[in-house]
Design goal:
With 284 residues, this protein is of the alpha/beta class. Helices cover 39% and strands 12% of the residues. The longest helix is centred in the last third of the chain and has 17 residues.
Amino acid sequence: MDLGISLPSLGPLATIEAIGAVATRAESLGVGSVWVSEHIALPMDYASRYPYSGSGRATFSPQASWLDPFLALTVAATATTRVRLGTSVLILPLRPPLLVAKAAATLDQLSGGRMVLGVGSGWLREEFEVLGVAFEQRGRLTTEAIATMRACWGDDPVCLDGRPPFAMSPKPVQGARLPIVCGGHTDAALGRVAACADGWQPIIDPDGFAARRTVLERLISEAGRSMDELWLSVRPGRENPLTPALLERYAAAGATAVMVSPDYSRGPLEAALEDLERVATLLG
């Protein structure tokens, strides 16, 4: 099973030194990919339920230092030569799709074709309100943005409905098939994976992954595609501590990659690097 590691793009270790050190150490340990998450503008309080914890509350503070994902990955790109560089996940409907297309293509060019664009439609209604985006339209906006980015990454001129033809460069090294991986495990999210994505990366336990994978298989078949086309990765989340037994359950459920988050809250950078080595050893 391929191993992905989150970078310290959130909190006290969200520094150029720590991101570079973690990315370098991850590559030396044989880790296949490094990832960053994002929020743009966190409300000071919210009523929305965080879907990835039993309490319904996120573990991070609204005032935590949360780096821009493309800038953080650029730091990782300069420190490495092999690992893939991913967002897990970019809240796609909060950003103009042409700007995302430009940023992702630029990073793919600068890194020699290592970009993976993980996207999601978001859960925090109040953040959408801060940014002036209709929360109820997030699914439609996500699907439309994926189509727009694919067009931008293809041949020029780019022709979008109602707009003058235009050119956008650089193009990704990986071309119009720069991998787009969708998060989430709702029916709508799985439908989006089947319709237009290259992979699936939910935050979910092994039993949930197995059950939702069955639904995805049906949707993929109905779309005339094969499951062999998809990269099936998973994020255990902090409520599922990483153990060899957990990895075996994910593998049995059909996951081919796991993205885990070392503990970056315990103190200095050396402690984080030690935790990274512990995690890598489980798959070594």
